């Protein structure tokens, strides 16, 4: 598909070139490139000349909107491939999947056939699927034949043999039936100056036209789609009149006295009080004050206890005392790092009604009531369809397409890092099913909008459903979804059978050709590559099922397919003529933009795993849709609350929201066993630690369910970051004044800053060195920054944008745009740039999420923790013990990497708050607690074996200290439960798994980290498997599966050692001349403390109840040995007073 060329990245120089090709039924490829057509016309027999024919009734210029929409339709039906040192090709797809596709936005949608003899292409169509016929004779013609007729046929229609005339398909930016608002004379003068400047740039590039949006003001809606202000049209449609240098409101609108026609609306808008989008809900003083006091009390008691312990050593076992002292000092330090950031927890609430009122309600600045919300690009990442089932990914995509957000402002990008045809066709099937599922969700207000989760709800699905046709609609959609699941689950076999058939046909053709050319003797040596074939009978340009050169996981071309083309700017309701039996006449049936992306991979390049895939999506989306905000989701995390994106947007669009780098949502999980044996819900972290961090500089980024500001990902500093740095020493020194350069800089420049110097100004000329040499990408940066600003609807809102600036329809896609997106996902694009270093997701760590969030906080950005009443997102988590340990191992390994890198919080900039720095320091240090924890877990056994204890005697002072420390810990836990909303069982499960993980995965993580730092051994991790679920299987069957891992060795050793030590301790005490019961009780108490924490681990090793796994026999033997030792100790053999005969304990 992607042929090699010696002209490497020429596509990056200026406008990207595309080679269009189409495979005919005979197997021949026909080129449809404009360059090829131009070269045929401009041969040596002709000369270049231009003829200007004035427009006449018989000769009207073609409407540019038609050609642009036709171009977009053609682009959405083409599979774009390319990459390093190869030509970017657009392969026209007759069909994407084997099943029929009917939605007009989808690639490969069925339509009328072209009437040109010998052409089997589809006719051009609009957003509803209605044929676009450029001639009044309604002659059906496809896009390619139309281009031929215009370029080589002198613009003559092949049907009626007349010149093409204009049609009535033009859609202006403003509804013709609605009067245009009248601007003031001051705004008129400013606008005319701006428009005159824009007229000079009419012949500039498409991106420059996007940049002109930054120059729009409150009166942006009075412009037409081309940017011209039509004075005559305004006077006619608004009945306006011009005075001497002034413009006045007409009598039937504006500031008139007529109250019936809404003439007082502008005054009401001006007098309306400003309302915030979010509120901060402080924790009640009756809870937070005792909580802070207890922290202080426990800090003092821990200090006094450690001082007492150091001053009272155990002279009989100084080694045991020293080991315990070192561990206890570290535990106190670790607890302090974990507890200090919890001093200022907060809760937050959003107001979606105010958001709708400000951005989607008709007003003075937005008379049409079109959505003024900024665009959002949603990223879904997947890498391996074997471990991440396509059905799970498809359900996630469907929940995104059905989200409650303006359809034309939403775009979904799916990154398939494995380049598998299975993922591609599953995504196409999901896009086809969305034609039915999304309107159904909008019509009946379905929650959740993941079909798998919705149809498996345990509650009554008919509750609060008032429409009489809901039962019929739900039954139909459920039947369609069952068929959809069958098609998804059958895709692997379907692709395999199809590929085998095509490969067999190719082999027969090759053998026939060899027989005709070379005879019979060479037939045995013939080898045909086992290719993977697409539904339209062409080779898949990505990874083949049988790996081949340029078609393997680490070696394939970049691929972009627009599955669902961008929707129109106006709502599109269903009709009675729709093929679906459901009534969607009152429902908007448009679907958001959906794009499949598989970045190029070549041998010899470091592709940087998930972080590299995310950065490729950032660049591709910047060129294709350029949403100022990015929401990233794992393939198994779907939108559970359809209003989730709006909830996050409340924070971004509120006053001061321009300084928010990202909004993190909590992770909620499904499919966890009711007892949550291995603390998979992780509620202590998500509901306690993250809420507490929200009161500082913000929560850490946890990898999924995060709404980013695009310019924050680009590595820019937040606005007004140079005015004052709230560093650690800010309380000791006076505020630093702004430099004259910064104070006098324009508003646009002050919003895009990168660097640590106050005098540094934004130098656009340096952008290619930071972001690469794509001019499209560089030009999109200031547009994204401007569109992401909050509304300037209050004097306190700084760095805002005027209302109504984002009601302009989105730019249509063209081939050069998609070709540019192909070039920025190539494997060589990031060379000698700052991608992965300062820009985008940060490379160099297996936990790229934490590092990326740390870099943003280090530059001064804030983050927000958005906890919604209804969970925003839900996903799956591994419930198997081994998978859970490996997950914790990966997290801990990333923390160790952070500690030994320049991302250590000790090296943070002054812009990071002190307690936020403490929190990040704890992120890098917590795995090292494993050394001290393992030693402390062995101390009870050593005490019982030796007959000694960590203190000389169990006196009253030691017991009082121990009691106070334990009580304060329990009281702190109760208060945390009170202000966070978790329950006691969840807190206890977290404590148990803290010890299980600390004695297994954390220790291995520290060792791996040290190996990487000292020996340079790279760390690899396995992808966490996602289960697609099976209705016939036990929901928690994976919980009982026992997979042996070396991580289990330390906890098993600790359990067995403590069990044997308890038996030995009892026997020693019973047979000692002077029994030391206090030492026995101390050792036994701590041993039981260790065993109680390891109980879930032991239960996991036992497997399913009712079965007898091998591990049970091992346990039985060990327990039998322990009981035998105890029996020998209680009743030794006659004539021997020593335990075990001649055996002597130390």
TrEMBL record:
<dbReference type="InterPro" id="IPR029044">
    <property type="entry name" value="Nucleotide-diphossugar_trans"/>
</dbReference>
<dbReference type="GO" id="GO:0051753">
    <property type="term" value="F:mannan synthase activity"/>
</dbReference>
<feature type="binding site">
    <location>
        <position position="381"/>
    </location>
    <ligand>
        <name>UDP-alpha-D-glucose</name>
    </ligand>
</feature>
<dbReference type="Pfam" id="PF14570">
    <property type="entry name" value="zf-RING_4"/>
</dbReference>
<feature type="transmembrane region" description="Helical">
    <location>
        <begin position="1052"/>
        <end position="1071"/>
    </location>
</feature>
<feature type="active site">
    <location>
        <position position="417"/>
    </location>
</feature>
<dbReference type="InterPro" id="IPR013083">
    <property type="entry name" value="Znf_RING/FYVE/PHD"/>
</dbReference>
<feature type="binding site">
    <location>
        <position position="634"/>
    </location>
    <ligand>
        <name>Mn(2+)</name>
    </ligand>
</feature>
<dbReference type="GO" id="GO:0000139">
    <property type="term" value="C:Golgi membrane"/>
</dbReference>
<feature type="transmembrane region" description="Helical">
    <location>
        <begin position="919"/>
        <end position="942"/>
    </location>
</feature>
<protein>
    <recommendedName>
        <fullName>Cellulose synthase-like protein D3</fullName>
    </recommendedName>
</protein>
<feature type="binding site">
    <location>
        <position position="388"/>
    </location>
    <ligand>
        <name>UDP-alpha-D-glucose</name>
    </ligand>
</feature>
<feature type="binding site">
    <location>
        <position position="417"/>
    </location>
    <ligand>
        <name>UDP-alpha-D-glucose</name>
    </ligand>
</feature>
<feature type="active site">
    <location>
        <position position="849"/>
    </location>
</feature>
<feature type="binding site">
    <location>
        <position position="609"/>
    </location>
    <ligand>
        <name>UDP-alpha-D-glucose</name>
    </ligand>
</feature>
<feature type="transmembrane region" description="Helical">
    <location>
        <begin position="1077"/>
        <end position="1098"/>
    </location>
</feature>
<dbReference type="GO" id="GO:0030244">
    <property type="term" value="P:cellulose biosynthetic process"/>
</dbReference>
<keyword id="KW-0328">Glycosyltransferase</keyword>
<keyword id="KW-0472">Membrane</keyword>
<keyword id="KW-0961">Cell wall biogenesis/degradation</keyword>
<feature type="binding site">
    <location>
        <position position="610"/>
    </location>
    <ligand>
        <name>Mn(2+)</name>
    </ligand>
</feature>
<keyword id="KW-0808">Transferase</keyword>
<keyword id="KW-0812">Transmembrane</keyword>
<comment type="similarity">
    <text>Belongs to the glycosyltransferase 2 family. Plant cellulose synthase-like D subfamily.</text>
</comment>
<dbReference type="GO" id="GO:0016760">
    <property type="term" value="F:cellulose synthase (UDP-forming) activity"/>
</dbReference>
<dbReference type="Pfam" id="PF03552">
    <property type="entry name" value="Cellulose_synt"/>
</dbReference>
<dbReference type="GO" id="GO:0071555">
    <property type="term" value="P:cell wall organization"/>
</dbReference>
<keyword id="KW-0333">Golgi apparatus</keyword>
<dbReference type="InterPro" id="IPR005150">
    <property type="entry name" value="Cellulose_synth"/>
</dbReference>
<feature type="transmembrane region" description="Helical">
    <location>
        <begin position="994"/>
        <end position="1017"/>
    </location>
</feature>
<feature type="transmembrane region" description="Helical">
    <location>
        <begin position="1110"/>
        <end position="1130"/>
    </location>
</feature>
<feature type="transmembrane region" description="Helical">
    <location>
        <begin position="954"/>
        <end position="974"/>
    </location>
</feature>
<keyword id="KW-1133">Transmembrane helix</keyword>
<feature type="binding site">
    <location>
        <position position="387"/>
    </location>
    <ligand>
        <name>UDP-alpha-D-glucose</name>
    </ligand>
</feature>
<dbReference type="GO" id="GO:0009409">
    <property type="term" value="P:response to cold"/>
</dbReference>
């Amino acid at each position: 598909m992607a042929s090699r060329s010696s002209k490497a990245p020429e596509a990056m120089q200026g406008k990207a070139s595309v080679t269009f090709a189409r495979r005919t039924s005979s197997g021949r490829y026909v080129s449809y490139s404009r360059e090829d057509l131009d070269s045929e016309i401009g041969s040596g027999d002709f000369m270049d000349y231009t003829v200007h024919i004035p427009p006449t009734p018989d000769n009207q210029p073609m409407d540019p909107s038609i050609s642009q929409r036709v171009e977009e339709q053609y682009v959405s039906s083409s599979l774009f491939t390319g990459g390093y040192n190869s030509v970017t090709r657009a392969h026209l797809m007759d069909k994407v999947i084997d099943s029929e596709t009917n939605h007009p936005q989808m690639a490969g949608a069925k339509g009328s056939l072209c009437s040109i003899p010998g052409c089997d292409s589809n006719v051009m169509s609009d957003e509803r699927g209605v044929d676009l016929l450029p001639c009044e004779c309604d002659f059906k013609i496809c896009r390619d034949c139309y281009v031929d007729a215009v370029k080589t046929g002198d613009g003559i229609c092949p049907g009626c043999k007349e010149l093409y005339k204009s049609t009535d398909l033009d859609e202006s930016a403003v509804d013709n039936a609605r009067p245009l608002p009248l601007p003031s004379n001051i705004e008129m003068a400013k606008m005319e100056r701006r428009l005159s400047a824009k007229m000079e740039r009419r012949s500039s590039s498409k991106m420059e036209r996007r940049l002109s949006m930054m120059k729009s003001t409150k009166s942006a809606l009075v412009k037409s789609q081309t940017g011209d202000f039509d004075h005559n049209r305004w006077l006619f449609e608004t009945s306006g009149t011009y005075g001497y240098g002034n413009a006045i409101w007409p009598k039937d609108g504006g500031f008139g006295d007529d109250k019936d026609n809404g003439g007082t609306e502008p005054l009401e808008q001006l007098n309306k009080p400003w309302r915030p989008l979010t509120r901060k809900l402080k924790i009640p003083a009756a809870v937070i004050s005792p909580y802070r006091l207890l922290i202080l009390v426990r800090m003092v008691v821990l200090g006094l206890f450690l001082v007492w312990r150091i001053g009272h050593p155990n002279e009989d076992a100084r080694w045991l005392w020293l080991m315990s002292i070192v561990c206890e000092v570290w535990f106190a330090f670790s607890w302090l790092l974990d507890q200090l950031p919890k001093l200022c927890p907060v809760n937050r609430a959003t107001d979606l009604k105010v958001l709708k009122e400000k951005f989607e309600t008709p007003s003075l600045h937005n008379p049409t009531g079109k959505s003024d919300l900024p665009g959002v690009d949603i990223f879904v990442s997947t890498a391996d369809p074997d471990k991440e089932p396509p059905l799970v990914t498809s359900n996630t995509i469907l929940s995104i397409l059905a989200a409650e957000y303006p359809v034309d402002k939403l775009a979904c990008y799916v990154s398939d890092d494995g380049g598998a045809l299975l993922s591609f066709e599953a995504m196409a099937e999901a896009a086809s099913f969305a034609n039915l599922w999304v309107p159904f969700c909008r019509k009946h207000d379905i929650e959740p909008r993941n079909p798998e989760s919705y149809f498996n709800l345990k509650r009554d699905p008919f509750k609060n459903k008032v429409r009489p046709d809901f039962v019929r609609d739900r039954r139909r959609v459920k039947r369609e979804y069952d068929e959809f699941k069958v098609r998804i689950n059958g895709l692997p076999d379907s692709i395999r059978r199809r590929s085998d058939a095509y490969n067999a046909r190719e082999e027969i053709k090759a053998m026939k050709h060899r027989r005709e050319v070379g005879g019979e003797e060479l037939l045995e040596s013939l080898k045909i590559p086992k290719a993977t074939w697409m539904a339209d009978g062409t080779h898949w340009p990505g990874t083949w099922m049988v790996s081949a050169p340029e078609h393997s996981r680490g070696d394939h071309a970049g691929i972009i397919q627009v599955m669902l083309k961008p929707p129109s700017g106006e709502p599109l309701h269903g009709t009675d003529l729709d093929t679906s039996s459901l009534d969607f006449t009152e429902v908007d049936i448009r679907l958001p933009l959906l794009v499949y992306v598989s970045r190029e991979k070549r041998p010899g390049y470091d592709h940087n795993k998930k972080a590299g895939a995310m950065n490729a999506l950032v660049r591709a989306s910047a060129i294709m849709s350029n949403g100022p905000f990015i929401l990233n989701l794992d393939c198994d995390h779907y939108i559970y609350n359809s209003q989730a994106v709006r909830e996050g947007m409340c924070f971004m669009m509120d006053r001061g929201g321009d300084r928010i780098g990202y909004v993190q949502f909590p992770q909620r999980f499904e499919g966890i066993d009711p007892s949550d044996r291995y603390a998979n819900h992780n509620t202590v972290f998500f509901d306690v630690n993250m809420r507490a961090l929200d009161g500082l500089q913000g929560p850490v980024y946890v990898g999924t369910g995060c709404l980013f500001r695009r310019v924050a990902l680009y590595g820019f500093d937040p606005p007004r970051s140079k005015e004052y740095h709230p560093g650690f020493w800010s309380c000791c020194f006076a505020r630093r004044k702004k430099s004259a350069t910064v104070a006098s800089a324009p508003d646009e420049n002050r919003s895009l800053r990168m660097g640590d110097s106050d005098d540094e100004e934004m130098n656009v000329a340096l952008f290619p060195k930071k972001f690469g040499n794509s001019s499209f990408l560089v030009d999109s940066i200031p547009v994204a920054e401007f569109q992401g600003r909050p509304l300037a609807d209050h004097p306190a809102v700084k760095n805002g944008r005027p209302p109504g600036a984002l009601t302009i329809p989105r730019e249509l896609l063209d081939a050069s745009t998609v070709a540019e997106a192909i070039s920025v996902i190539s494997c060589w694009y990031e060379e000698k740039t700052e991608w992965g270093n300062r820009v985008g997701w940060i490379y160099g760590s297996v936990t790229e999420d934490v590092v990326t969030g740390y870099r943003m906080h280090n530059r001064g950005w804030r983050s927000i923790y958005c906890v919604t009443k209804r969970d925003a997102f839900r996903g799956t988590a591994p419930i198997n013990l081994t998978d859970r340990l490996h997950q914790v191992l990966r997290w801990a390994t990333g923390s160790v990497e952070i500690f030994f890198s320049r991302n250590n919080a000790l090296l943070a900039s002054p812009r990071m708050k002190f307690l936020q720095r403490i929190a990040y320091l704890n992120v890098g240090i917590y795995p090292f607690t494993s050394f001290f924890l393992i030693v402390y877990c062995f101390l009870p056994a050593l005490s019982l074996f030796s007959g000694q204890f960590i203190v000389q005697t169990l006196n009253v002072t030691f017991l009082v200290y121990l009691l106070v420390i334990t009580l304060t810990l329990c009281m702190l836990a109760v208060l945390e439960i009170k202000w966070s909303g978790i329950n006691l069982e969840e807190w206890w499960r977290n404590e148990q798994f803290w010890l299980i993980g600390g004695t297994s995965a954390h220790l291995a993580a520290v060792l791996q980290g040290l190996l990487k730092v000292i020996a340079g051994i790279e760390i690899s991790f396995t992808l966490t498997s996602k289960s697609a679920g099976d209705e016939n299987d036990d929901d928690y069957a994976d919980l009982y599966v026992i997979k042996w891992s070396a991580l289990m060795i330390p906890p098993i050793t600790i359990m067995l050692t403590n069990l044997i030590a308890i038996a030995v301790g009892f026997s020693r005490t019973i047979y000692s001349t002077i029994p030391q019961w206090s030492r026995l009780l101390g050792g036994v108490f701590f041993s039981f403390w260790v065993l109680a924490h390891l109980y879930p681990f032991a239960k996991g090793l036992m497997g399913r109840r009712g079965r007898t796994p091998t591990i049970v026999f091992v346990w039985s033997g060990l327990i039998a040995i322990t009981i035998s030792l105890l029996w020998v100790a209680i009743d030794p053999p006659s004539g021997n007073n020593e335990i075990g005969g001649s055996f002597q304990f130390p």
